[in-house]
Each structure stands twice: as C-alpha cells, then as structure tokens.
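Reopening this ticket.

The earlier resolution said the output was attached, but the attachment link was broken on my side. Pasting everything inline this time so it's all in one place.
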Amino acid sequence: MDEPFVRRRERLLDAAAAVGLEALVCFSSGIHSFIEMDPVWYATGHKPLGPSGLVVASGGDPVLHIQPSWDLARARESATVEVRPCTDLFASLGRDLASTGVGVGAAGVCGTEKLGASDVERLDAAVGTGWRDFDEGAQQVAVVKDQHERELIRRATWIAEEGYRHALAEVRPGMREYELAGQLDVFMRELGADDNFLIVSASLHNLSVHAPGDRIFAEGDILLAEISPSFKGAFAQICRTAVIGDISFTLADGYELLREAYRQGLAAVRPGATMGQVVEAVNGPIEAAGFEEFCRPPYMRTRGHGMGIGSPLPISVSADSLIELKEGMSFVLHPNQYLPPTGYLLCGDHVVVGPDGGEALSARIAQLDVTGR
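Inline output:
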C-alpha cells in the first residue's frame, strides 16, 4: 500500500529538482474541496481533519506533523509515513526542514493556496522568507493519475452509480428533496464513501440544478442529480436525469441530443487533443439542432471539470482551454444543458484519457430514466 505514495513523493521531488528545489514542505489546512489539491493526502494517503504538514527531501524519511492531536490514531492508520502530533505546526515543519540541511531558498511549499495571511507569517518565521511556491509544479505532477488513484476513482464512480440506482428506487411523489439527498448520502457512505458533494433538485421545467431544499416531488417532475462521492480521498462524479412519471417525446428527444453531444465529446478525448477541441465536439450536435445560443453563458458555463484531491487539473472543460490532454488525465465530461423545450438537463460521466482515446468509468453512460412508480 505504501508503494504508490512513495512513487508520488519521488515524482514530486524530481519535478522540484527540475526547477532547482531540493526539498518540499507540504501543507494542508484540513479543509477540502474536490476542485483543489491537498498535497498531504496526495503524498501520504492521510486526509487531514486539521492543519497538517510534512517535509519531503531526498535521503530523508518524511514525517507527518498533525493537528489536532486527537486525530493521531486515525492518521497513523491511514498515513504511509511516520506521524507525530504537534502543538506548533510551522515550528515543527521548520525544524524538519533544517534537519535536511536544505537552505530556505532551495525549498518549495505545496499547499500555499490554503495558507492564510497569518499562516504565511508563521511559516516565514519558522523556515525563513526565501521559500518558493510549488503549487503549480505539484499539480502538474498529480494531473496524470497513477494506477492506484485510477482504481480509487473507479470505485468512487461505482459508489455514485449504486447511489443513483438507490435514489431511483426510493424517490416518490410526496418526498422532499432533502429527504432523498439524506438517504442517498447515508447509502453511499455505507458503501465506503468518505465524503460526498451532492446536488439533487427537481421541477417541471428546471432552470438549473441546485442544492436540495424542502420542495416536494410531484408527478411529472424532472429530477436532476449531480452525485460526487469520494473514496479514500479520490472524487468522481456522475450527472443524471430522471422523470417522476411518463417521459414526453419532447423530453426524450432533448435528452438524446445531450447523449449524442456526450458521445461526440468522448470520441474527441485522446492524448494530444486540446480541451477546447473536446468542447467543440460536444457543442456540435447541440448547435446543429438550433441551440447555439444556449451553448454560451449565461445558459452554459463549462462542459466539465477536473476533480481532486490529487490534482484539480484540468480546472475547466471550456471552449477557450488550450490544455493538452495526456494519457492518465481524469475529468468529468458533462454536456449539462438548458434547452427551452425541456428545461435544464444533466448528462455526464467521469472519464480517463487512455492511450487510444477516452474511457468512461461508468458501467453505462447517462440515459433518461423513469422513477417514482
């Protein structure tokens, strides 16, 4: 189990050495987001609940320093390095860096986006003011998922799909949005999810998807579900649409248009392609159907996004993105779209860039489902 994290630390050090750095200080605030990297989780396997950090240097054994100390037992169970509690995190990291013999000017810091102004002052006082920001370098290392991380994403995708199947079985007229969301969250945690970003809402004509509220589901509602569980720190996402009742011909045609847009986008995913080319492929069928205006803001912002905690890159699947796809990249591709005849619809899956093209991690791509009967 330690091996993938050893390789990650080695890759981080190799990338650091390429820009003249000899050691890295990795920091986590313990506040997590699936569109931000957590370098402590990435390098150790431990998802912190509070401020934590470690120093990584060639020839030395990394030590994870954690706050709060009451999380020590969990940290020692999950981390692949030695773990020590501390009362002054930055002082502990400073002592660790000094023990490596690496000068401050040759040290990089990962996790700077999580440092507040007072944190920076304390870090400067502990290690000196010559450290360099290595967030971008770390994200470039982590953007290509290793085999271990891909397996975690696959498991998270499976949890999402099982959660959606559970939701289809449970939803009924008279239930409130937050009731379904609560049941879905509990069910996925029982399957092993350690976190979950979940949006569930419904309407006869949705203008968008939003956080679940106290609206009561009714016959004829179009249910939208954006399901994003995490398994051992790795997030995945699926975007689904279901009808409580009967599917109209208009709705069926609109959803099939989004499915075709998804298929065209997935076919454009390959090493060497740009994200902008993928978006062009997604937009093609929708524009050809006469909805070009609705492929632009304010009706549509992005065709997907990267997900952490490893690396959030590519940040956005957008038309102006020049990011070049590489084998092993992973992101969500979702032609989620407002169409005037149907309202807003969700259609999307987590994909990985393979050697010959894009691979959808879901057992089946999104389809328009019927539920509530």
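Reporter confirms the inline version is readable. Residues 65 and 89 are 7 Å apart (CA to CA). The chain has ten helices and 17 strands.
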